UniProtKB/TrEMBL annotation:
Keyword Lyase: no
UniProt key word Transmembrane: yes
UniProt keyword list: Membrane, Transmembrane, Transmembrane helix
Stretches that traverse the bilayer: 49-67, 73-95, 115-134, 140-158, 163-183, 195-213, 225-245, 260-279, 286-307, 313-330
Protein name listed in UniProt: DUF2157 domain-containing protein
Species per Swiss-Prot/TrEMBL record: Buttiauxella selenatireducens
Length: 340
């Protein structure tokens, strides 16, 4: 069995613990250790990083192509509708290739996901050309996001692809934001709510829908992605809300800090509730989100309340001490887990 150095240490420690507890004897421990083969270089991680960098380069190249009007006209000297069809055909080709490879060679996970991601990228480019072809000057881009959400949703659900489903949920959030923005005339408020409050509600509804549809989503391997996106929408919106409140940006600078306190408390309560639920259900994702955003909340309040009134030397010394204490506590928990 090929393992990394880190995995070898974990297995060795486990075997030693079993020997000391009498689960296996020394001969059995030695026999099992002989089946371990240390992989000196983590080629799996190297493969993942290489594909990430390659995709980033592709995105930069396509962005440069779109920005270069001469080159774009040279390669795509067509109307918007024709460009949209060509890009859609390219996207379909990438989807077909990626799904076929997933069935034939499921072990080539990163290259398969990279090919599918190219299909996602060309779908977005095709939709952008559709938008330009249908543009009537109204500025209503919400239907395009809804169309993208529908395409990604169907493709992701049928293919059991968390990557495509992720873009479906991103398009859904973009549709919600742009549709409410258009309905409000791109003003600060829609039904008395600014953008952060809208997305707090959006994240909460998405989380509720995720748990209501837990069984079909789990069957398609889409539940964790849906839950993570719901939590992300919710907590990022709560964080922004705790800073700006339900105020327009122009008014916010004249607002006293005490008037935003209830939003900070709501943010903290949501994080604590997330941690409490994680302890009851042993859910690592809930625990991670709760602890991370509780820390973000505390440090945001720290900067807001003490930045102006504290000497900068003392401020950063206190910040360093607090981070050191957090680091020591995390190290203690890690060492306890390692010992177990």
């Amino acid at each position: 069995m090929k393992v990394t150095r880190k995995q070898e240490k974990i297995v060795q420690r486990t075997l030693e613990g079993w020997r000391q507890e009498g689960v296996i004897d020394a001969a059995e421990q030695q026999r099992l250790q002989q089946h371990l083969s240390v992989q000196l270089f983590d080629w799996q991680r190297m493969s993942r990083y290489a594909f990430w960098v390659a995709l980033a380069c592709v995105i930069i190249a396509i962005g440069s192509l779109v920005a270069d009007e001469y080159l774009l006209a040279l390669l795509f000297n067509f109307g918007y509708a024709t460009r949209a069809i060509i890009l859609a055909i390219i996207a379909i080709a990438f989807y077909a290739w990626g799904f076929q490879r997933q069935k034939r060679t499921p072990g080539k996970r990163y290259s398969n996901e990279a090919i599918v991601f190219l299909g996602v990228l060309f779908t977005a480019l095709s939709l952008s050309q559709v938008g330009m072809a249908l543009d009537n000057g109204s500025g209503n881009v919400a239907p395009l996001f809804l169309l993208g959400c529908a395409i990604y949703g169907v493709m992701g659900y049928l293919a059991r692809s968390g990557l495509i489903w992720l873009f479906c949920l991103l398009a859904l959030g973009s549709f919600f934001g742009s549709s409410t923005g258009y309905a409000s005339g791109w003003g600060a408020y829609w039904l008395g709510m600014n953008y952060p409050i809208r997305f707090v509600l959006f994240g909460a509804v998405l989380l509720a829908a995720c748990y209501l549809l837990k069984t079909p989503l789990q069957q398609r391997n889409l539940f964790n992605v849906s839950k993570a996106m719901g939590l992300l929408y919710l907590f990022i919106a709560l964080w922004i809300l705790s800073i700006f409140g339900n105020y327009d940006v122009d008014i916010w600078q004249s607002v006293r800090q005490i008037e935003l306190l209830h939003w900070s408390l709501l943010f903290a309560l949501a994080a604590v509730a997330c941690i409490w639920l994680s302890l009851k259900t042993d859910d690592g994702m809930l625990r991670g989100f709760g602890l991370t955003f509780l820390g973000i909340n505390l440090y945001t309040r720290y900067f807001e309340l003490f930045w102006d009134g504290t000497n900068k030397v003392i401020f950063f010394l206190l910040l360093a001490i607090s981070l050191t204490l957090v680091g020591r506590y995390a190290e203690k928990i890690w060492r306890i887990g390692e010992g177990r």
